[in-house]
Design brief:
The chain has one domain. The protein has a two-stranded antiparallel ribbon with strand order 1-2. Strand 3 and strand 4 form a beta hairpin. With 533 residues, it is mainly α. Helix 4 packs parallel to helix 7 and helix 10 packs antiparallel against helix 20. The termini are far apart. The protein is globular, with a radius of gyration of 25 Å. The chain contains 20 helices and 4 strands.
Length: 533
């Protein structure tokens, strides 16, 4: 952004640091909550009692944080808000494995061997595809695939920020879909079923009810996303130039040609041997990981919740050890593989070498921790204010008051829910409020509850990538700044949103076309389930 001084000379305005932006946003929420409390800002909305199959009225009232009690909450809960902030623990656990793999050089060798011959478009497509599929296991893709994508693009001598954008876009804008049922089904189906039974007391919704449309949507979104990244976003990020740190004090060591050749041969042999053994060890660990989620075999099922009756709930249920332990298992995989490669390739000779080589990768964790801290305070204060819940209730009441139904109502509901998603990013909390308003109306228009549920999944992912209220937006901003070589020009929250805005606009249109097209054609959205009843 430019402005002119009194002499008419253009002066470039320095973007605001994301840390400062989150602090300002936190103070704005505190002040706005105080203002809204004066006007008694609140909303009354309906939720469904799944036992009695009747609507219950809930009232959400604004919490005044610009008060004595509000300030006591902010000070007293700062540590708690930081500790329970979901991205923090996942990021720290994942970083253990990433740091070891990077320090040992295993990532460099691994990614060069696997991705060296892939075209840029193919790689971007695969990154977005796997990022989209990662929503099977909640938000693990944000802390695993984003840093991996950055490493991969850097190994291919492309701007790592392109990888960060591709992975974040897949995770955020594809969160509502995947290639199989996962944790979202277990979260949404109870609310969809309860709302449907207001009309039909025997209505049943299976876990596979959205399977077909999810698979097709995943492929379409990945293809469209690849085009957006390569044609629109990547050119704006430019090429990546590594800063060369040279000093006059550097000493030159003269090595003979024969000795240099011997060193290269020795290093090449050690790298190949290290890569081979580390890959074998990694595969053994992966097989153990797979065995831990297979039921009924001797000693198997370590990561399953055996208190649940169905396998899908055992692996994706609320108390699933697989979901809770997935990030830790990935960190262990990378840590073990990195250590094996480091010692076999002679990069590590002892534990001291491991610690010394890990210092540089670990230095990036400090800046991310500060960003995570201020983002956690912003998220905690906004959640405590109740603004998101109140806005959701107001918008749900607007939908309840509409006098028309059918596909027009469905499209209007999509736009209203998309607006809501910018302020309230928890899909379960939103669907608990929206389901009683949307599902019965659409059932009376012959639109199935399963299709309504998929619409919610699609809409929920539309705005995730352009709202700082989304908890994992901070991971995206953090990694953009880690790989930003212009230290005097930090990438602000506004910059991050502007980078993603073309993706948001085109993917939103794509989602709309998928939903309307599927409804018009009438294809099944799952086994024996159609858009209409």
């Amino acid at each position: 952004m430019f402005k002119r001084n009194k002499n008419g000379i253009k002066i470039q305005r320095k973007p605001m640091e994301p840390v400062i932006s989150y602090i300002i946003l936190t103070f704005l929420v505190i002040i706005i909550s105080g203002i809204l409390s004066i006007f008694k800002f609140q909303s009354t909305y309906n939720i469904v009692d799944s036992t009695k199959l009747e609507l219950i009225q809930n009232t959400a009232v604004i919490e005044n944080l610009f008060s004595f009690d509000g300030l006591k909450y902010i000070v007293g809960n700062a540590t708690k808000n930081f500790i329970v902030f979901a991205p923090l623990s996942m990021y720290l656990v994942a970083m253990i494995g990433f740091v070891v793999c990077e320090a040992s050089g295993f990532f460099d060798v691994l990614f060069k061997r696997i991705f060296a011959n892939l075209s840029n478009k193919t790689l971007t497509f695969l990154i977005i595809l796997f990022a989209t599929i990662s929503s099977l296991i909640n938000e693990v893709g944000f802390v695993i695939i984003i840093p991996l994508a950055a490493f991969i693009y850097k190994a291919k001598k492309r701007n790592p920020m392109i990888g960060v954008c591709a992975a974040f876009a897949g995770c955020a804008f594809g969160y509502g879909t995947s290639v199989f049922v996962g944790s979202l089904e277990t979260q949404l189906i109870p609310y969809t079923t309860a709302a449907a039974r207001l009309v039909d007391s025997e209505y049943h919704i299976s876990l596979l009810s959205n399977l077909y449309i999810m698979i097709v949507s995943t492929l379409i979104l990945s293809i469209v996303g690849m085009i957006i990244i390569e044609k629109i976003i990547a050119p704006t990020l430019g090429k990546y130039r590594v800063k060369k740190e040279l000093s006059d004090a550097d000493e030159l060591e003269i090595i003979g040609e024969e000795e240099l050749e011997q060193n290269e041969l020795s290093n090449d042999y050690n790298e190949k041997r290290g890569y081979k053994i580390a890959s074998i060890v990694g595969m053994i660990f992966v097989l153990f990981f797979i065995y831990s989620v297979v039921p009924g075999l001797p000693g198997s099922g370590l990561l399953l919740d055996n208190n649940e009756e169905t396998y899908l709930k055992q692996i994706f249920g609320e108390n699933s050890y697989f979901q809770d332990g997935f990030t830790y298992m990935i960190a262990l995989l990378f840590t073990i593989s990195g250590l094996v490669y480091g010692f076999i390739s002679k990069k590590f000779k002892n534990g001291t070498d491991v610690i010394r080589e890990c210092k540089e990768p670990l230095s990036r964790v400090g800046s991310m921790l500060l960003l995570l801290f201020v983002a956690s305070q912003f998220a905690g204060v906004f959640r405590k204010s109740n603004m998101g819940t109140i806005i959701t209730g107001i918008l749900a009441n607007i939908l309840s008051g509409l006098s028309f139904g059918g596909i027009i109502y469905l499209v209007v509901a999509m736009f209203i829910m998309m607006i809501c998603d910018y302020f309230s990013t928890g899909i379960s909390a939103k669907w608990m409020i929206f389901a009683p308003s949307i599902v019965p109306v659409l059932m009376q228009s012959n639109i199935s509850p399963q299709f309504s549920q998929f619409v919610m999944r699609a809409v929920d992912s539309m705005a995730n990538g352009v709202t700082p209220l989304y908890a994992y937006f901070v991971i995206y901003i953090g990694y953009l700044n880690i790989y930003n070589i212009r230290e005097n020009r930090p990438i602000s929250i506004g910059n991050g949103i502007r980078i993603m805005f073309p993706y948001f606009a085109i993917i939103s249109i794509t989602w709309l076309l998928i939903i309307i097209g599927w409804y018009i054609i009438g294809l099944p959205i799952g086994p024996g389930v159609y858009p209409t009843i």
